[in-house]
Design goal:
The protein has five helices and two strands; from the N terminus they run H-H-H-H-H-E-E. It has helices at 4-12, 17-33, 52-61, 72-77, 91-100; strands at 114-115, 118-119. It is elongated, with a radius of gyration of 22 Å. It is mainly alpha-helical.
Length: 128
């Protein structure tokens, strides 16, 4: 349903089929790139381009960063939020912190046959 405008537009406005295909491919690549958690956007464009870091905050806080490609309308409408990941407070930073503290990861073997407090499948725990 969300992609419907991309398919209706060519019927309302003249658009060459090669340009339509190029735009369709761009939109698909962009959609994947804003969900991949890779926050690489050139520093000078970070405030203008609604990249993965902005979109991650959109999913975390819901009321911010609605823009598809740019942050202009979010800024004008008051829904812009500077990405927490670019301030060192994003979800990846929290995961790294928990791993450094030993609270997350495969290194928490508590007892024979248990990982992270859960019995492994096929493992038997015998009392000795």
């Amino acid at each position: 349903m969300q992609g419907l405008p991309y398919h209706i537009y060519p019927f309302l406005f003249p658009l060459h089929k090669v340009l339509y295909l190029a735009l369709y491919i761009f939109v698909n690549i962009w959609t994947i790139s804003i969900h991949d958690g890779d926050y690489r956007v050139p520093g000078a464009l970070t405030g203008a381009i609604n990249g993965s870091a902005h979109h991650t905050d959109h999913h975390l806080f819901f009321d911010y960063n609605y823009g598809q490609y740019f942050t202009l309308w979010d800024r004008l409408g008051g829904s812009y939020r500077h990405p927490s990941a670019l301030m060192g407070k994003g979800p990846h930073d929290l995961i790294r912190k928990l791993q450094a503290e030993g609270k997350l990861g495969d290194d928490r073997v508590k007892a024979k046959g248990q990982v992270n407090g859960h019995a492994q499948r096929g493992a038997t725990c015998k009392e000795e």
